[in-house]
# Entry
Amino acid sequence: MTITLFSIILLAFSFLAGLLGALTGLGGGIVVIPVLVLLFHIDIHYAMGASLISVIATSSGAAAAYLREGYTNLRIGMFLETAAVTGAFIGALLIAVISTTLLTIVFCFVLFFSAYLTMHRKEEDDILAPSHTWGTFLKLDGTYPLQNRLQEYHVQHVPLGLFLMGIAGVLSGLLGIGSGALKVLAMDQALRLPYKVATTTSNFMIGITAAVSAGIYFSHGFINPAISFPVMIGVTGGSLFGARILSKINIRTLRIIFSIVICLIAIQMLYKTLTGNA
Amino acid sequence: MLSASKIQAIMGMLLLAGIYSSAIFVCLGGILFLMQHGSENIQAEWLHLTVIPTSRFAIWQLALSFTPLGIIELGLLLLVFTQIVRVALLVGFYAAIRDYWFTLISAFVLFVLVYSMFWRK
# Structure
């Protein structure tokens, strides 16, 4: 295969990665890593480096539209990001002392269970329940566009959300994947935010968390320009397109897409762990 | 007075400017790279053999060398630096509206982000 053909195929898959990543708030790693590792047999470290670039590009490309349309809650994003970046840094330091095998298997089952929870939440019931005291103190409540008007919402269980966000950070530092999945889950299941607010706020945050890891990956030489360029261009196109169609997609469809994608992440991680291909 | 919606609009424009300028560099470098090496075959070793610098100085040296891979590298670095700028913008915004809790919160995120850029084993 020529390098041109490799780049074109990677570009096409990356477009899909950016589209899915922007819609679900998960970033593009779920598509980029298996394509590079399983299809092109590229070393996992370079694949993870390219995946980080894809996450940052998805986050930047889609966030502009989500901010303009009023979905993203910047205050919640920044508040939770304190726990996420701290966790990510601790995770990167713990990598030498913790066995990731058992951790990965546990995490996979958490993801399967989360897919189940995601499908079963009826958000209309609880977005208007009174806010948690921290939510009121930090002014985390907000509004988002729903059927041509602004719908108000409140936040619940803030300490639990912050704790889950720290765990998400540690896991992403340790396992290099899954940070977006737990971010969306923490905001959907703990904070009880409207789904599109959860996915778009996660989308805003993952670029910052990934940039923390990217600094470390650059210093290891794991960000390869020859692999990253088709990924960056494809993902940018996909995320800009995804951001344009989010407002037209109904929440039920989005929950189904998210659940399928996190099950795929779990299967991919189980495969990697059980075959030792990590 | 800066309002939250104003800062969201500014942040959106910053992110778009960052991603478009980064994509221009990456595209340009990518096209030049394919013009030089596009018809070569991918060998399993090829991607491992590409020499990638790891020290800060060498990374910038590559980025400013204006070779095809260097131009791509410059675009990728620009993308990462946009993330620092967006957090710095929020620190400034919350300080300007005298929201001290959120100034502190954003400053902490900015600190970890910048620290990780300079962190070495």
